[in-house]
Design brief:
Layout lengths: L5 E9 L1 H11 L11 E9 L2 E8 L6 H15 L5 E6 L10 H4 L1 H4 L3 H19 L2 E11 L4 E3 L10 E9 L4 E7 L17 H13 L4 E4 L6 E3 L13 H34 L6 E5 L5 E5 L4 E2 L6 E12 L4 H21 L22 H23 L4 E12 L4 E6 L2 E2 L1 H10 L4 E5 L2 E2 L10 E2 L2 H6 L11 H23 L2
Parallel strand pairs: 3-4, 8-9, 16-18, 17-20
Antiparallel strand pairs: 1-2, 1-5, 2-3, 4-19, 5-7, 5-13, 6-10, 7-8, 11-12, 14-15, 15-16
Helix pairs in contact: 2-5, 6-7, 8-9, 10-12
Length: about 500
């Protein structure tokens, strides 16, 4: 048997039956299923160092629930894994972590929690017991039509989709990890059990590669949102319930379309990775009966490491203005809004969450100005609300973890919602050839919820949702991530030599 230095086990569990039962008991207005919501487990044993990854089709993992899972896993194997990492796909469409799980301490004896933990332990047991020698291959593709920067019409956005292919020693695929930053929010107002477009992506991949588990690991998706088909303008002036019916129909069609686009690119990369690390050639017609050497796409990890370093970062943002100063800002914005409405009567109501279509030519128009002013109004009213509660700062604990899986590939795992520009700043300074960003991570006893957006100076200057009371520490976090990447890279070099 070929020695690979690593063994891997994987297992998948569908949450549909549990979620459906809970929704029926609680009278939650569930309307059926649009695919599946799953939880996946990947166990990686690298030279006796055990890493366990749980990936769930929810928005967030919750603090006490992750700690309970850790204790159950440790009891199952009688030892402490080196790393237990929880990742959420961050889907806004399906059923999120139900209330008993969010309020774990009050409901730890609830049947839902008991059954979830039993199911997750069984999921881990299956993955742990199915470990076998494995090969890891890493590649990337380009997808530039399904996502965009949600704050700026022509803003930068992520086009790379990273794929980790894990094979057994015979070359048969065990599972795939897909890393792409985008909010799965296409039908977030519809009460269906669904994993949104990541589920459609997995279904597409499985049509080519049988029933292979596919993990969707979201990335720096704070400002990465899907580009979707808009409801026909004919429906904008009809009753709102009819509008929503048509919108729901269009959105579900878009879930499948976007999932297929992403899934097909993943299939292309997986096919390229089938020959990663192998010798390739093309016929040389200059001299007959000879061949030119060609290098395949992707990287075969010949010396897997799985060296991890982590750091907890306290992000504290002082609120710089008093309540009275916020009131002045609010009054000034309200006066500007009234003036524009007086000079340019419009049927549009300047409010957040309005279903208006803003075009490039709208820049500088009264509608555009009204919406921009209203975003500022939202920002200052919320900031004033924080001050009125005697809060003089906003604090969050960010979990920052770096995994070096080889000399060439490093992964930055972050608890909150990172923006594209921060991810790019990390990549530009990273010592690794490929640096992936895994977002929406929780470690045992910690949560992905509560940190929200790691905003940047440019987002604050724009105003609106992504600037509200968020800690402006993206430079510090980027520097910390680069330092951890460098430390991990140096340790890998010492282990395997230059």
């Amino acid at each position: 048997m070929e020695k690979t230095g690593i063994s891997v086990g994987v297992s998948v569990f569908s949450l549909n039956n549990i979620l459906d039962k809970f929704c029926q008991e609680e009278g939650f207005p569930i309307r059926g299923e649009k695919g599946e919501q799953k939880i996946r487990c990947l166990v990686i044993d690298c030279s006796g160092s055990l890493t366990v990854i749980f990936n769930i089709d929810w928005t967030w993992w919750t603090k006490d629930f992750t700690l309970a899972i850790k204790k159950a896993v440790e009891a199952e194997i009688g030892e402490n894994p080196n790393n237990i990492l929880f990742f959420a796909t961050h889907t806004h469409t399906g059923i999120d972590a139900p209330k008993p799980i969010r309020d774990y301490r009050k409901n730890k004896d609830h049947w839902l929690i008991t059954q979830m933990i039993q199911s997750i332990v069984e999921l881990f047991r299956q993955a742990y017991n199915s470990r076998k020698p494995a090969l890891i291959k890493v590649g990337s593709g380009i997808v530039d039509s399904i996502s965009a920067n949600s704050d700026e019409m022509d803003g930068d956005y992520e086009k790379n989709v990273y794929v980790i292919r894990i094979d057994d020693i015979n070359g048969d695929m065990i599972c795939a990890l897909v890393n792409f930053p985008c909010h799965p929010t296409l039908s977030r107002s519809a009460y269906y059990i669904s994993g949104d477009f990541p589920t459609a992506m997995e279904t597409t991949v499985q049509k080519v590669y049988s029933n292979i588990p596919v993990f969707y690991i979201n990335g720096a998706a704070g400002d990465m949102w899907p580009v979707h088909r808009r409801v026909s303008p004919d429906f904008e002036n009809i009753p709102i319930d009819i509008y929503h019916q048509e919108k729901e129909k269009v959105d579900w069609a878009e879930v499948g379309r976007i999932g297929r686009i992403l899934g097909l690119e993943v299939c292309k990369v997986l096919a390229e990775l089938e020959v990663a690390g192998q010798q390739m050639s093309v016929s040389n017609c200059l001299w007959f009966y000879t061949e030119w050497e060609k290098h395949p796409s992707g990287i075969l990890i010949s010396e897997p490491a799985f060296i991890t370093k982590s750091q907890k970062v306290m992000l504290t943002k002082e609120l710089e203005l008093t309540k009275e100063e916020c009131d002045q800002k609010i009054k000034s914005i309200e006066q500007k809004i009234k003036q524009i409405q007086k000079e340019h009567p419009s049927p549009y109501e300047p409010r957040m969450y309005a279903p208006y279509l803003l075009r490039r030519e709208d820049s500088g128009s009264p509608l555009f100005d009204l919406m921009s002013l209203n975003a500022g109004l939202y920002y200052w009213k919320n900031k004033r609300g924080g001050i009125s509660k005697n809060e003089n700062c906003v604090s969050s604990i960010a979990n920052l973890c770096v995994i070096g899986i080889s000399r060439e590939v490093g992964i930055v795992c972050f608890a909150g919602e990172m923006f594209h520009e921060t991810a790019e700043a990390i990549r530009q300074q990273s010592p690794f050839k490929i640096t992936m960003i895994f977002g929406y991570m929780a470690t045992p006893g910690e949560t992905t919820n509560g940190l929200y957006y790691l905003t940047t100076e440019s987002k604050v200057s724009l105003g609106g949702l992504h600037s509200y009371n968020q800690p402006k520490f993206e430079q510090e976090v980027a520097c910390m991530a680069v330092k951890l990447l460098s430390d991990v890279s140096e340790e890998i070099q010492k282990t395997y030599g230059q």
